């Protein structure tokens, strides 16, 4: 059965890869893109989501969401990773389409209530929209099909501090709210996303096989892959956001641990995701009476890479 998904996103180069992967996957029906600050300001992430929406073979509306975190100051935008435009400084022409007038948080609440047990929420940026939606409508926790988030790190290091991953530190208060809500949540974090690397040879092959979508992806990834080479000395970009979509398409690509997750909201450890294995009792408080969530901790990296390249190379027909 096709899954109805809402993608909450801050495009973002790897967001673009993830969104095109979702568009090209018959298992998924993207009913909307909701935007948030993160890799760029929210106005820019909305403009980029509108550009991306034109690459779907069916209409995908875009809803603008939150421009600032729930409590902390807005972090600096990482233009050295995603470019000032979020697409690797490629100067891609703006879309003629407009965002919907409804706010992203209201759209999420309305859709989850109208389709009980049917909507999967996929979060590819800071968790502010989801945190606000829970704050305004706690009942949605019992109504979603599942929540799949790219964010966090359990057994591996962070990518913006020794312990924090970028999306989680972007709004740690929202992240703690989202992780501890009583809804079925899957965390697709750096433990798995940092294992899968997409190279320039891969993006060139995608662009050759599928020029309509591949040109934007190839040009955006050029800058992003250079960042990974120069900063980390590795020959490709990490497949962060697309891994959430891979999970939705085929969860057997991942191995899962179960247990409560908390997020440190201040101090040196701000943005750290702290996982407690299910059933383990500790003399120090914080994890008791919190729901068990699912954490991806191992990945079949070759199969994820093959899935990504195959789907991005073979878009559905536009007829
Ligand atoms: C996450 O942060 C952003 O830079 C990427 O788009 C991804 O969602 C990786 O830490
Ligand atoms: Ca992202």
Automatic annotation (TrEMBL):
User: Carries keyword Hydrolase?
Assistant: yes
Q: Please give the superkingdom of this protein's source.
A: Bacteria
Q: Which GO terms describe its molecular function?
A: purine nucleosidase activity
Q: Which GO terms describe its cellular component?
A: cytosol
The answer, when asked if Plastid is one of the entry's keywords, is no
Pfam families per the UniProt record, alphabetical = IU_nuc_hydro
State what protein this is by name: Nucleoside hydrolase
